[in-house]
Amino acid sequence: MNSGLGRPCLERGGFEGTPPLRRLPLPRCPAPPMASALEDPVLIRPFRGHRAAVTGVAFNADAAGLATSSLDRFLMVWKLKTQCRAYKFVGHVEAVTSVQFSPDGQLLASASQDRTVRLWIPCIHGESSVLKGHTASICSVSFSHDGHFLVSASNDKSIKIWSVRRQRLLFSLFQHTHWVRCAKFSPDGRLVASCSEDKSVKIWDTRNKTCIDSFLDYGGFANFVDFNPSGTCIASAGSNHTVKLWDIRMNKLLQHYKVHRAGVNCVSFHPSGNYLITASTDGTLKILDLLEGRLIYTLHGHKGPVLSVAFSKGGEKFASGGADAQVLLWKTNFDSFDYKEVLKHHIRRTHIDDPPHLLDIYPRSPHLHGEKLQSVEVNPTFDVTNTQTLDPPVIEISSSSSFSTPDDVSSGDLQYPPSSVLATSSKRKSENESESAVHNVDKQTGISPSLGNALEHIVEQLDVLTLTISILEQRLTLTEDKLKECLENQQKMLHQGRQEE
Question: Rounded to two decimals, what is the model's pTM?
């Protein structure tokens, strides 16, 4: 019985440094020298199909499909059931930097260095709509938890909120002074967390479109940020090798880990909120127990930097993507808790009318964790030729309205959304095609390519002007607020002077 993956090699590292300040855990039996294989995360299989670094991974709602994005300009959807297939979606003209399924799995969003966000229907038709508005490369895209909105972060220093149903820009958020690396919605959709190379992590209120809090990290900038499942904390992945957890209710640093030897590129919370997995340029994944404030696993398998990682919705699997163009699918195993009740508790908190909860689930004293913490090393070996996990066949799907179904593809291979969604998408697609007619005007009306290029340049300049006006409006608002504050202080001083007289 040869799986071709070999038996994971488990080694326990040594412990150095002072134990972190935390609430004492429940008494436990001493751990055996070798951890049980049933409790450790194990590699299910690697997926190879991309030609360049894998920048994003995302599971669909039932964890039966995995979407990946890559610098090779393609999206891929891997079907994880018995008959494994891979579907390559072609549409972006430059590197794809981020990908995410909508909560119901009916749509797929991608962001690219070509300055566009695309909404895809993940079926063999390859239908997609293009969202334009950013004036520089887009680093991340993410759905709100109800699936009604998208948030994107870009090198144009802005964050943009989009309507999924209308497929148009709603508003932009400006205050970052450098490239914005990532933006995520809170579980209830009221807040957005963003991180930038200006070394700040900001919290935004989507109702009044203002920044309500900012965390500064002078040691380096954050590459990635996300909310925990209950929406009370955020985790940031630092270029300075650190992972930090912030309590957004108390504006306080809760936990500070320095367990990697290079920059941290991505993090993902387990759905229970008890664990955090991190991906780093040092080539490893690390799993942190947030309740006890300690590192528990170090996972090897990628050859080079690990750029992305994500848990499935139920937490039973996770996937990682690396600069080696590989996607690794893992089985979690280590979470032995019955966390279904915890998940229900978190879901209740995503209702917009719920009051903010006061449950402190993480140790509240900030403490630094050194690089040599005790952890179990999981190192899958590929010494035996892999004969049972062949790379799945790849079917290329172009984002075109005209398509032909390959003979060997059945209609059940990819999930089809309801006809109403297809109709809406087709309608939106025709609208987008009419809006982008200026880009294809030389083909449709016989206008010379030079005039078409000139018109495209004018459209780009209009985008820049729109961005400039938005920035000026933002600065004018800030100036008015400062002026108002100065006048109020002057009135207070005059009032105090009269009272003293």
Answer: 0.69
